[in-house]
């Protein structure tokens, strides 16, 4: 495996007032991957990004990026890191072109008009290059922030809720842009509330809650390991109790005993085959049914389930 | 020590662009105000006043009026320059960039000082329409104006980091700097004040600045030029030290 592009060890952040936003976080990010950091509000996602990008002073732990200790060699590391913040924070009276050119210079790059043009065109902002940012729509403003973050060609890009408040069509457009960045070799860490966004794009997923990383895994591995199949069988006649040949399956009766609910299998499959066996068992037992609704659990189901487990007192 | 010239220039250029974007507020407004002072106190009232220390009254007030504008504008410009990114959240970009205290100061403070110098040049040019004057030590005057502009731009930078509201941002220039400049010998020589007010007036540090600039203009002042220069340099060093501590601790910049 390649050396991690970003390595975090024992990262802790306690704000004044005692709020512990990060609690002994360990995390490695691999070069070229899209890593999705999922967590509810206040979980510590933005604090984690802030600690890496220099916005937050860690209370403890170490952060190493590109082999540089961020506490000592922060200049070398920061020159290769880009950040798209959650808030639409930019000088609203500046033009798009000037804003992006400023970011390029701020990160120590020589003025490169061709590169700025390329970035603006790729984000469909070229027509708006002379417009003041305040005159743009919310989605365009967010793209300006992405353009600013890309102006110095970062190798590691943080996207903090990149599609928050963005309509469905534009969100899909942004997913395509993020995929193109990955193709160019940019490592991307994104936080998101939209689990489907992580499911769509991420190579690996980390789940954070209460400042602690609960789980980090390949997205597919996580779904295989924690995923299940759910089937809802709409019965023709309510059942008083489950016959023995059906009770052997992981099923329960629901909604006035007119529904048989199966939860089993794994994300790797197996559930669908078992549902087929269940339907045969129903037929053998003479139990008629009208319809079957079957689906595999999504990343969102896994996410909600994991957080739910954490909230149960020990 | 590492210094990223491109980063510093990017900040400087953007701050200068901001000033020209708001030229009426940044340049025309202070020039108009100072011109009114020249018309009222220099031409109209000044014509009836006795010379002060051998200097015609209209010319006598030029260094004080220049100092009045320079202190207020450089402080406000620098404080606004760093306060606005904090207020709007755009400071994230500065904090996440590979720039340290040196680039930040050269960018923000350099721009504020440059704006102060442009204002000073315009005010001196404007003054020629209303009063006759000649500068005895032009090189030293230019150096002193630059020194004061840089010092108060640094002071304004500290103010912009300290302030957590627009009200606080305006308090120091309006309620402290302007009154102290008025009472610091802008319109009169402190030595002409009756005792004990002449001694009390020297508790006002701005009096030393006005006096220093007046010496570079006319070769005569209330206190020796070396004292004014020493105090100004000391103030500059104090501001640089405070800013270095702010950056090291992240006070009001990094959570």
Automatic annotation (TrEMBL), chain A:
<dbReference type="GO" id="GO:0005524">
    <property type="term" value="F:ATP binding"/>
</dbReference>
<feature type="domain" description="ABC transporter">
    <location>
        <begin position="6"/>
        <end position="235"/>
    </location>
</feature>
<keyword id="KW-0067">ATP-binding</keyword>
<dbReference type="Pfam" id="PF00005">
    <property type="entry name" value="ABC_tran"/>
</dbReference>
<keyword id="KW-0813">Transport</keyword>
<dbReference type="InterPro" id="IPR050763">
    <property type="entry name" value="ABC_transporter_ATP-binding"/>
</dbReference>
<dbReference type="InterPro" id="IPR017871">
    <property type="entry name" value="ABC_transporter-like_CS"/>
</dbReference>
<dbReference type="InterPro" id="IPR027417">
    <property type="entry name" value="P-loop_NTPase"/>
</dbReference>
<dbReference type="InterPro" id="IPR003593">
    <property type="entry name" value="AAA+_ATPase"/>
</dbReference>
<keyword id="KW-0547">Nucleotide-binding</keyword>
<dbReference type="InterPro" id="IPR003439">
    <property type="entry name" value="ABC_transporter-like_ATP-bd"/>
</dbReference>
<protein>
    <submittedName>
        <fullName>ABC transporter ATP-binding protein</fullName>
    </submittedName>
</protein>
TrEMBL record, chain B:
<feature type="transmembrane region" description="Helical">
    <location>
        <begin position="169"/>
        <end position="190"/>
    </location>
</feature>
<feature type="transmembrane region" description="Helical">
    <location>
        <begin position="23"/>
        <end position="46"/>
    </location>
</feature>
<feature type="domain" description="ABC transmembrane type-2">
    <location>
        <begin position="21"/>
        <end position="250"/>
    </location>
</feature>
<keyword id="KW-0812">Transmembrane</keyword>
<protein>
    <recommendedName>
        <fullName>Transport permease protein</fullName>
    </recommendedName>
</protein>
<comment type="similarity">
    <text>Belongs to the ABC-2 integral membrane protein family.</text>
</comment>
<feature type="transmembrane region" description="Helical">
    <location>
        <begin position="117"/>
        <end position="135"/>
    </location>
</feature>
<keyword id="KW-0813">Transport</keyword>
<feature type="transmembrane region" description="Helical">
    <location>
        <begin position="223"/>
        <end position="247"/>
    </location>
</feature>
<dbReference type="Pfam" id="PF01061">
    <property type="entry name" value="ABC2_membrane"/>
</dbReference>
<dbReference type="InterPro" id="IPR000412">
    <property type="entry name" value="ABC_2_transport"/>
</dbReference>
<keyword id="KW-1133">Transmembrane helix</keyword>
<feature type="transmembrane region" description="Helical">
    <location>
        <begin position="52"/>
        <end position="71"/>
    </location>
</feature>
<feature type="transmembrane region" description="Helical">
    <location>
        <begin position="142"/>
        <end position="163"/>
    </location>
</feature>
<keyword id="KW-0472">Membrane</keyword>
<dbReference type="InterPro" id="IPR047817">
    <property type="entry name" value="ABC2_TM_bact-type"/>
</dbReference>
<dbReference type="InterPro" id="IPR052522">
    <property type="entry name" value="ABC-2_transport_permease"/>
</dbReference>
<keyword id="KW-1003">Cell membrane</keyword>
<dbReference type="InterPro" id="IPR013525">
    <property type="entry name" value="ABC2_TM"/>
</dbReference>
């Amino acid at each position: 495996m390649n050396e991690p592009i970003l390595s975090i060890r024992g990262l802790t952040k306690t704000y004044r007032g005692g709020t512990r936003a990060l609690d002994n976080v360990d995390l490695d990010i691999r070069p070229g991957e899209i890593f999705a950091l999922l967590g509810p509000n206040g979980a510590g996602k933005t604090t984690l990004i802030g600690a890496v990008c220099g916005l937050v002073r860690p209370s403890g732990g170490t952060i190493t990026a590109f082999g540089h200790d961020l506490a000592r060699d922060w200049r070398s590391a920061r020159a290769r890191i880009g950040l798209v913040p959650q808030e639409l924070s930019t000088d609203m009276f500046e033009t798009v072109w000037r804003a992006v050119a400023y970011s390029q210079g701020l990160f120590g790059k020589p003025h490169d008009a061709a590169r700025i043009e390329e970035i603006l065109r790729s984000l469909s902002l070229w027509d708006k290059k002379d417009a003041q940012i305040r005159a743009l729509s919310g989605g365009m403003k967010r793209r300006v922030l992405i353009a600013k973050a890309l102006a110095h060609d970062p190798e590691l890009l943080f996207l903090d809720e990149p599609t928050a408040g963005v309509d469905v069509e534009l969100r899909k457009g942004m997913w395509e842009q993020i995929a193109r960045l990955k193709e160019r070799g940019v490592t991307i860490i994104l936080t998101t509330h939209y689990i489907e966004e992580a499911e769509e794009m991420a190579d690996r997923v980390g789940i954070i809650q209460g400042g602690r990383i609960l789980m980090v895994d390949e997205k597919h591995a996580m779904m295989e390991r924690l995923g299940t199949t759910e089937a809802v069988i709409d019965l023709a006649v309510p059942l008083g109790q489950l016959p023995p040949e059906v009770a052997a399956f992981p099923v329960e009766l629901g909604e006035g005993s007119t529904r048989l609910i199966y939860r089993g299998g794994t994300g790797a499959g197996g559930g669908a085959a078992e549902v087929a066996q269940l339907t045969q068992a129903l037929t053998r037992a003479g139990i008629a049914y009208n319809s079957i609704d079957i689906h595999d659990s999504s990343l969102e189901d896994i996410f909600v389930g994991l957080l739910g487990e954490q909230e149960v007192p020990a | 020590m590492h210094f990223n010239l491109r980063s510093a220039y990017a900040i400087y250029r953007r701050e200068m662009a901001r000033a020209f974007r708001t030229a009426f507020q940044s340049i025309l407004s202070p020039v108009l105000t100072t011109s009114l002072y020249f018309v009222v106190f220099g031409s109209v009232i000044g014509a009836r006043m006795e010379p002060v220390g051998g200097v015609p009254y209209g010319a006598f007030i030029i260094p004080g009026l220049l100092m009045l504008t320079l202190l207020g504008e450089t402080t406000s410009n620098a404080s606004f320059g760093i306060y606005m990114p904090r207020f709007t959240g755009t400071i994230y970009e500065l904090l996440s960039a590979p720039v340290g205290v040196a680039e930040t100061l050269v960018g923000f403070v350099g721009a504020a000082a440059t704006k102060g110098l442009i204002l000073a040049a315009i005010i001196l040019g404007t003054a020629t329409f209303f009063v006759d004057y000649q500068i005895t030590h032009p090189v030293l005057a230019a150096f002193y104006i630059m020194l004061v502009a840089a010092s108060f731009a640094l002071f304004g930078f500290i103010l912009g980091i300290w302030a957590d509201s627009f009200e606080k941002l305006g308090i120091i220039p309006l309620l402290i700097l302007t009154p102290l400049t008025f009472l610091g010998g802008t319109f009169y020589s402190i030595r002409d004040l009756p005792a004990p007010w002449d001694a009390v007036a020297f508790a006002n540090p701005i009096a030393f600045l006005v006096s220093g600039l007046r010496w570079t203009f006319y070769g005569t002042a209330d206190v020796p030029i070396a004292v004014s220069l020493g105090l100004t340099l000391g103030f500059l060093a104090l501001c640089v030290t405070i800013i270095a501590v702010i950056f090291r601790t992240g006070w009001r910049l990094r959570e």
